[in-house]
Amino acid sequence: MTNRKLYPATGGLRGNLQVPGDKSISHRAVIFSAMANGTSKITNFLTGEDCMRTVEAFRQFGVDIEQDRGTLTVQGKGVEGLSAPTQPINFGNSGTTARLMSGVLAGLPFFTTAYGDESLSKRPMDRVVNPLREMGATVIGREDGSYLPLAFQGSPLQAMRHELKVRSAQVKSCLLLAGLFAEGETTIIEKGVTRDHTEKLLPQFGVELTVNGPTISIKGGQELKASDIRVPGDISSAAFFLVAAAITPGSELTINNVGLNETRNGIVQALEQMGAKISSHVHTYVGDEPVGDVTIKYGQLEAITLEGDLIPNVIDEIPILALAASQAQGTTVIKDAKELRVKETDRIAAVVDTLTTLGANVEAKEDGMVIHGSQSLQGGSIDSYGDHRIGMMGAVASLISHEPVVIQDKDCINISYPTFFDHLAQLQNKKTS
Ligand SMILES: O=C(O)C1=C[C@@H](OP(=O)(O)O)[C@@H](O)[C@H](O)C1
Ligand SMILES: C=C(OP(=O)(O)O)C(=O)O
Asked: Which residues form the Enolpyruvate transferase domain (predicted)?
């Protein structure tokens, strides 16, 4: 466990920043490339620990994946070219790896076992195991397949028509991947919009799917063809610096070349609703993914109610939005966000505990929280709970705290943002220690 002491900012955050590649798109790019025939090059790949778990999984299936910093060269040999791993696969801390790979492991014609770290072993897997079983998958696991470790005995899958029980892009993507192995056409009906990177990226690998509102259909047996992918910057990583600038006097910064997919740009919408001095514009498309710049300046924020359809769009940004809300005028209410309880940690409890320790006034609710605004943060010693997004929220809080913030176990930030502290120092134009 390592500690880090972060001092309050003496000036604002200023300048331009390119955040690392999008985590969701990086996972998908390597999965599709490894299942495709031919050589795919992925640039601006996120080399955070989570995405490297997905890379390692496919190396265990015998796929040659060369890494040169953020560039991956994947020598795909098609799904027939994958070979049975001799060792269990370690999904580490990564929910996306666990859920998406389950759809692949269910369809591959061999036996595989998979496990995760302490946090991932507590996260629900029945949300993918149950529908995969409906397709004929043979999966066993702890508590009847509700939790990792899991074992898959790949078997022929049958297409199905399935209404999702959870509003989750991971479950949707898992079942679309399984649908590629199934006989017939699989149709998935979403409970509401969730991030649509799988639907946007699969066609780039030559896969046909139809999207009709909440209904997505995919035919089994399609061959994936290699494709070169440039991954946009991760808006979920950018969110930490957007909020940092919004709450730290003297700040003005621009995040360049960040993904602005409409199913992911809720952080920009939420900050706009809070009255932040923020503007964004899309300047390019990489494949079907919109990419652009976001500029933000320090300014007074107002409380909002964050609920309903905006929640899945900002689900990973809620910890940092809660910090923003502690500085806004008025009382912010976050609801419909029960999913936060089954992330890397219970993020409702972790956010409330962390902000309270730092001196804010926050109440936990079953499906969200109530955050009283205009709070002056004292600083102090906090625990990341091994959750990268809680660790980064604490680091941003240090910028406006009276006393230093000490973060226990801050190394977990490498899960999604290995260069986070370098970027923070770059924008502060001084080193943190
Ligand atoms: O599909 C994805 O890449 C992700 C979907 C979300 O999870 P859920 O699908 O569980 O909501 C999100 O929280 C996670 O960080 C990444
Ligand atoms: C919830 C997250 O990721 P995952 O589900 O992939 O662990 C996250 O990155 O905030």
From this structure: 12-424
pTM of the predicted protein model: 0.97
- pLDDT tens column, 308-318: 999 999 999 99
Query: Which positions are annotated as active-site residues?
Result: 316
23 is in an annotated binding site: yes
The mean pLDDT value for 260-284 works out to 98
Whether ligand 2 lies within 6 angstroms of the CB of 168 is answered as no
Residue 170 marked as a ligand binder = yes
- 96 CB near ligand 2 (under 6 Å): yes
Give me the count of residues in the chain: 433
pLDDT > 90? residue 10: no
User: How far is residue 432's CA from residue 33's CA, in Å, rounded to a whole number?
Assistant: 38
Domains of the chain by residue range: 3-21+232-428, 23-230
How close is the Cα of 385 to the center of ligand 1, in Å? Answer: 19
107 lines ligand 2 (CB under 6 A): no
* β partners of residue 332: 371
- Helices 95-107 and 49-60: crossing angle in degrees, nearest 10, is 20
Do 3-21+232-428 and 23-230 fold alike per CATH? Answer: yes
Whole-number mean pLDDT of the chain?
Answer: 96
Which ligand sits nearest to residue 170's alpha carbon?
1
Rounded CA-CA distance 401/253 in Å is: 20
pLDDT tens-digit profile of 139-179?
Answer: 999 999 999 999 999 989 999 999 999 999 999 999 999 99
Would the annotation count 347 as a binding residue? yes
- Helix (H) / strand (E) element for 74: namely strand 71-77
Ligand 2 pocket member 416 (CB < 6 A): yes
Q: Which CATH number fits domain 3-21+232-428: 3.20.80.10, 3.40.50.2000, 3.30.70.3270, 3.65.10.10?
A: 3.65.10.10
What integer pLDDT is reported at residue 11 of this predicted model?
80
**Residue 200 assigned ligand-binding role:** no
User: How many helices (H) and strands (E) would you count in the chain?
Assistant: 14, 25
Sign of the C-alpha dihedral, residues 303, 339, 193, 283?
A: positive
The yes-or-no verdict on residue 391 having pLDDT over 80 is yes
In the prediction, which pLDDT does 430 show?
A: 45
Which architecture characterizes domain 23-230 according to CATH?
A: Alpha-beta prism (3.65)
Which one of 24, 100, 175 would you pick to mutate in the ligand 1 pocket, going by the greatest count of ligand atoms within 8 A of its CB? 24
53 lines ligand 2 (CB under 6 A): no
